[in-house]
Amino acid sequence: KENYWLDVTDPTESELTWLGKLFTLHPLTIEDIQSRELREKCESFRNYYFVTIQTLDIDEAALHFNIYSIVMSTSILTIHYNQCHHSETVLRRFNELKGHVEFTPDWINYAIMDTVVDDFILQWKRLEALAESTDELVFNHRKSDETDLLKQIGSARKAISGFLRILKPKAYVVRSVQKRIETLKANPNGLEISLYLGDIQDHILTTLQSATHYEKILSRAHSNHLAQISIEITQTGNKLNEIVTKLSVIATILVPLNLITGLWGMNVVVPGGEEPNLIWFLSIVGFMVVYFILSGLYFRSQNII
């Protein structure tokens, strides 16, 4: 029998039930597909193995959906509930590699996983550029950009964390498929497919290492930036305290002088008020000047002003 590939988009429950009967699929497989199970995995059954891998929409990077692959000895059934370009990409590979590669169900499953991982690598390049620009901006930003910078750091860290969360399970899925193929000694192309899958795993691990590295860089940059803001707030508070201290000193000096001027300025009989000369007036003014100078010198010697 010749190998064939059946690709199904957005099947109904009745269609899934019919496919299950046609291909003798396990009820758990049908249940996972119907419930749109998000967990990525590779499960082995008597006559096939079932692969669930999460991909993303290239037009809407935030939209993630699963591709379910049921790989049998002479056929492969792929099911997804969203339109995706992976099938067209694999078909283009058929035309490019025709005559050089035997298109077995295992190879088609490998090609689908490879295109999915390629999309994530492309998405990572965008995130990597965002992480680098954000890291540089931490050290070269204006004071007016503090709020926007914090938002950008938070958004970049959130994007990378989400990227890591989705990419990490793929290494396990690829490794599980690789083990499954290696155990099937009757498969003549098993070794070659295993090498291809190993290449995918290398790409995933390299991307994971890079993403983890930049996540740590952004985490450190976030902490450094918050520490810098804390230092600036402390410095501003210290300057404000210095100003308040100086104002308090000035008030300490001026309040007694205001008291004296207030007492002698009242419209009542005061000492020296009936004297025909300016001795009292000049004495009071002189005392105020001397008090002001001595108070200023004292506070200056205490490094208060």
UniProtKB/TrEMBL annotation:
One of its GO terms (molecular function) is magnesium ion transmembrane transporter activity. InterPro entries: Alr1-like, CorA_cytoplasmic_dom, CorA_TM1_TM2, MgTranspt_CorA/ZnTranspt_ZntB. The chain crosses the membrane at residues 247-266, 278-299. Keywords: Membrane, Transmembrane, Transmembrane helix. It holds the Pfam family CorA. It comes from the Eukaryota. GO terms for biological process: intracellular magnesium ion homeostasis. This is Mg2+ transporter protein. It comes from Basidiobolus meristosporus CBS 931.73.
